[in-house]
Amino acid sequence: MDYKFFANLTAEIGDIPPDSILSRTLHRDDRSRLVLFGFAPGQELSEHTSIHPAILFFVSGEADLTLGDDQLQAGPGTWVNMQPNLAHSVRAKTPVVMALVMLEK
Known about the structure:
This protein has one helix spanning about 10-15; strands spanning about 20-30, 30-40, 45-50, 55-60, 65, 70-75, 80, 90, 95-105. The chain is globular and about 40 Å long. It is mainly β and about 100 residues long. The chain contains one helix and nine strands.
């Protein structure tokens, strides 16, 4: 196929168990990878970096987001473009569905 289509990303993650983070790779090719995350409230991805440029898109929920030294609030519709090696973290305040697109250099 020449395309990948998801009508509803929230439906792709399903139910998020309490005290858990789900991740599901929805697409992967030689140029990009789409990973969908579902966070239960209070769950977090601790600070880390990646060698790849990446895009975060918050589909639903509210989260505390750290990008470098900046503390930000993310909600439905929040979009972030991150350059390689940027320290970042995500902590869910409510149930969160977040799409991560990792790009190949």
